[in-house]
């Protein structure tokens, strides 16, 4: 879905990613790589997500849209490095023409030098031409006037009421107070209900499309 927020043209993608055409940039938040292995190491049995499918999803969009820069909006890895690190390393090295940047999140405890060694820059935030401020945690009312804040961290989900009193929780893009919060990219993250405010905008992911609710 193509939208314009704070005067910035954006594309909300059903693959749970954001494309910013003016900067040829692809953004995704809260991948939480290594989470399954982290829990299994602690004796908690959880299924391993299809990481190959997730890597291919990103790579396909990078090649299709000729992306120049991929931005991870925090919580790229759930904890310390494990077997998923090697898969991520191979993924990065397989796209040598693309620059990768990680906006540090609360779960990103791997040393900055570790990311730099495989070609991923780590920063605290990114500002694009004083128009877009990209952070891990949403700023909402703290967003500077006239600026669009793009963030992650929340794993937003929208409760959609169906017939027979059924309710489904859908991953969504949530726009509130000049802040666009992205859905979590990782499939092992869970969703946080964001409630409903008539002043906000909710763009839910329904299969292979994004729909404004």
TrEMBL record:
Alphabetized UniProt keyword annotations: Endonuclease, Hydrolase, Ligase, Nuclease
Pfam families: Metallophos (PF00149)
Molecular function per GO: endonuclease activity; ligase activity
Listed InterPro entries: Calcineurin-like_PHP, Metallo-depent_PP-like, PdeM-like, Pesterase_MJ0037-like
Occurrences of domain Calcineurin-like phosphoesterase (ranges): 26-135
Keyword Ligase: yes
Protein origin, superkingdom: Bacteria
The protein, known as: Ligase-associated DNA damage response endonuclease PdeM
Organism: Ravibacter arvi
Taxonomic lineage from the root: Bacteria, Pseudomonadati, Bacteroidota, Cytophagia, Cytophagales
